[in-house]
Write a structure and sequence with these properties.
Layout (H helix, E strand, L loop, with lengths): L1 E3 L7 E3 L6 H16 L9 H16 L3 H13 L9 H5 L7 H7 L2 H10 L8 H5 L21 H15 L11 H10 L7 H12 L11 H12 L6 H17 L7 H15 L4 H13 L9 H4 L7 H8 L1 H10 L8 H6 L20 H15 L11 H11 L6 H8 L3 H6 L11 H9 L13
Antiparallel strand pairs: 1-2
Helix pairs in contact: 1-12, 2-3, 2-8, 3-8, 3-11, 6-23, 13-14, 13-19, 13-21, 19-20
């Protein structure tokens, strides 16, 4: 619950929990898997390719449908922990990592496990994620497990991850042929790869029974896995928890934006309440604000954290992120209504914004509201290239930009919000909506932002 108050409207408490059930939650899970695919470098399309092969190996070994569903999600989420940890290692892959980068990379399974454990209904995926870099001979990481102490799903994932990576182009090498990959897998028999998993893969390969990856089919496969793992009823709290996790991962891309999506959500709902929008629309504003920067993972960290003006090429990369985020949401039926917020939150009232240069009320009201809150939080947060600005300075900027950068109605609603609301969202941290155990795991993995979700009254 968040209470939004204003000078001109009576305070009312708005239930902004997402009471959209299983379809919405499954859509959020799909968005989470697709976020990884927007990244520059070798993570693009890597997770789904790993999942595609891992499921085939799992079926050959005789895994249950539930185990295959867990394996699929482990495949697409196992590198979540790389976000904000070792960006250079996956945005600009090299043949050999330096010592410091390798040490950071070796932490990512632990961070991925922490993030996955916090996702309701995916708890069974966590051990596979944690151990997907363990080797059969015990020389892997992070725990140095060996042999059958490594979960079977993690052993499958280790081989599928390697095979998929070898079959992809990298800046330092071409994609390897099937025969070259086969030779590497044979060399890794009972060293990197478990004998049972290796034999299953080689058997499929010899019989030419490994189906090629076909991206348009992945949505169907993912939805089938969701049906296998999710209960018939999903609580609204679970949807809120997953929104929190998604936004935390988005914000983790840039160390200067910790808690940004949450603060934009709080301020946007308060402003939308001032406009008299109904509860359904307030729920849409809440979720859209959390996901408005979904496309940020497509922007290299060197651009997001640059200490100085962006050149033309870098600015173009930044301008793509609204379209990238919107395209993800538009492909997921239960999240499609949130896409205007992602696509148009950088448009300007005078038509000089991006990505489409919309003008005036051609900009959806949802995006107009997000634009004001987004700009305010950017101004009042530290950035690599400047310190944060004072609250009143930011409010004065919004007042000056009304009718030029910002829609008049949205700006007026925002400017009417009480000062205590703005101060509250940067005050002491109350508990997260995620449970204490999940919060502890995220904190241990350094995946929590500096601020938390507030009950503003």
């Amino acid at each position: 619950m968040i209470a939004s108050a204003g000078r001109s409207r009576t305070t009312r408490v708005v239930d902004v929990s997402l009471n959209s059930g299983k379809a919405f939650y499954a859509g959020l899970l799909e968005a989470l898997t697709q976020v990884m695919g927007t990244a520059k470098g070798y993570l693009f399309d890597h997770g789904p390719r790993v999942a595609h092969l891992a499921r085939q190996i799992g079926a050959e070994i005789g895994l249950s449908e539930r185990a295959k569903a867990e394996l699929l999600y482990a495949s697409v989420l196992c590198d979540m922990g790389m976000i904000g940890l070792a960006e250079d290692a996956w945005e600009n892959p090299v043949a050999h990592l330096d010592r410091d980068t390798r040490a950071r990379v070796q932490v990512h399974p632990i961070r991925s496990e922490a993030a996955v454990t916090a996702i309701p209904h995916l708890e069974g995926v966590a051990p596979l994620v944690r151990h997907h870099h363990e080797w059969w001979d015990g020389s892997g990481y992070p725990d140095g497990l060996a042999g059958h102490d490594i979960p079977l799903g993690a052993r499958i994932l280790r081989l599928a991850d390697t095979v998929a990576a070898l079959g992809e182009n990298r800046p330092n090498r071409r994609a390897l042929t099937s025969e070259e990959i086969r030779e590497i897998v044979v060399e890794g028999y009972a060293v990197e790869f478990g004998p049972d998993v290796t034999q299953a893969y080689l058997g499929l390969s010899e019989k030419r029974r490994i189906a090629d990856y076909y991206a348009p089919n992945f949505h169907r496969v993912l939805m089938a896995a969701s049906e296998e793992l999710l209960p018939a009823e999903i609580s609204p709290l679970s949807g809120d928890q997953l929104l929190e996790i998604l936004s935390t991962l988005i914000d983790a891309k840039d160390p200067y934006t910790a808690g940004h999506s949450r603060r934009v959500a709080i301020l946007s709902v308060a402003a939308a309440n001032q406009l008299g929008l109904d509860d359904d629309m307030l729920q849409t504003v809440w979720a859209a604000a959390y996901l408005h920067d979904l496309g940020k993972l497509s922007v290299p960290l060197r651009v997001l954290a640059k200490n100085g003006p962006l050149d033309d090429e870098e600015f173009t990369e930044v301008q793509l992120h609204p379209s990238v985020g919107a395209s993800i949401l538009e492909r997921i039926p239960s999240l499609r209504h949130l896409s205007p917020g992602a696509r148009y939150h950088h448009e300007r009232w005078d038509g000089r914004g991006y990505p489409e240069g919309l003008r005036g009320d051609h900009i959806p009201l949802l995006a107009q509201v997000l634009a004001v809150s987004d700009c305010y939080d950017a101004m009042t947060s530290n950035r690599a290239y400047r310190p944060s600005r004072d609250h009143q300075v930011a409010m004065d900027e919004i007042a000056r930009g009304t009718g030029i950068q910002f829609g008049p109605r949205a700006a007026a609603a925002f400017l009417s919000l009480p000062d205590h609301l703005f101060h509250s969202i940067r005050g002491a941290r109350p508990p997260l909506r995620v449970g204490a155990v999940q919060r502890a795991r995220l904190a241990a993995a350094n995946l929590l932002p500096d601020e938390s979700q507030f009950l503003v009254g």
